[in-house]
Every structure is written in structure tokens, then in C-alpha cells.
Write a structure and sequence with these properties.
single chain, alpha/beta, five-stranded parallel beta sheet
């Protein structure tokens, strides 16, 4: 599975990528919103792990642009924003899931597995 990680915290992004690669996945790492948006416009992914607070474009702007292009790739938002209104805004912008930092890598992997199981199901 090809997973794109857009996260400005290099240590966190690389830690996620390392764990996913160790599990046999391809993982692309990008560190700002503009870079992430350009990459996702040109390349395909099976799942996107997207930080909300990015330099350049915010994660929500990247997500909205992805959805505006008609791209239905599953997206898990990562953020330190844990308020209900923040989670609702992320889900309403088109996210498939929302994970609050700090998080456990086992939970992120479980959420990736859950999204991958549902990826080809028509609602």
C-alpha cells in the first residue's frame, strides 16, 4: 500500500514512515502543505496521513483541494486540536478519520487498516 504522510514535524513524519515501511508499505513524506498538495495532484496514493497545522497551505486546505479535484483517497487527519469543533471541521472538510496527537502508532496502524478495508466499498 502507498501511504503519503504530510507532516511538518520531521521526527514524527520519519517515525511514522519508518514504522509503515517496516510493515511493508511504501511511504512518501512531505513537510508542508504546498508540497503535499502538489504531490497529491500529480501522484496517486492509497491513504493520506495529513497534519492539519502545516506551513504554506494548512492540512484542511490541502484536503479541500484534494476533494475539489474529485480525489476520494482516504485521509486521516493528525492534529493537536482536540476540540469537538476542530474534529467536526476536519470531517466536514472531507477527512475519513481524525487522530489527536499524541497518539499511539498501533492506533494509527489500526485506523489505516480499517480505511484500507473500506476503500473499495461504494456507499
Amino acid at each position: 500500500m502507498r501511504i503519503v504522510i504530510v507532516e511538518d514535524n520531521a521526527a514524527l513524519a520519519n517515525g511514522i514512515a519508518y514504522r509503515l515501511r517496516d510493515r511493508g508499505h511504501a511511504a512518501d513524506v512531505l513537510h508542508d502543505g504546498q508540497e503535499g498538495d502538489a504531490f497529491l495532484a500529480a501522484e496517486s496514493a492509497d491513504i493520506v496521513v495529513l497534519d492539519v497545522n502545516l506551513p504554506g497551505l494548512s492540512g484542511l486546505e490541502v484536503l479541500r483541494a484534494l476533494r475539489a479535484r474529485g480525489d476520494g483517497t482516504p485521509v486521516i487527519l493528525l492534529t493537536a486540536n482536540s476540540e469537538t469543533r476542530d474534529r467536526v471541521a476536519g470531517l466536514d472538510a472531507g477527512a475519513d478519520d481524525y487522530l489527536v496527537k499524541p497518539f499511539d502508532m498501533d492506533e494509527l496502524e489500526a485506523r489505516i487498516r480499517a480505511l484500507s478495508r473500506r476503500k473499495n466499498i461504494d456507499y
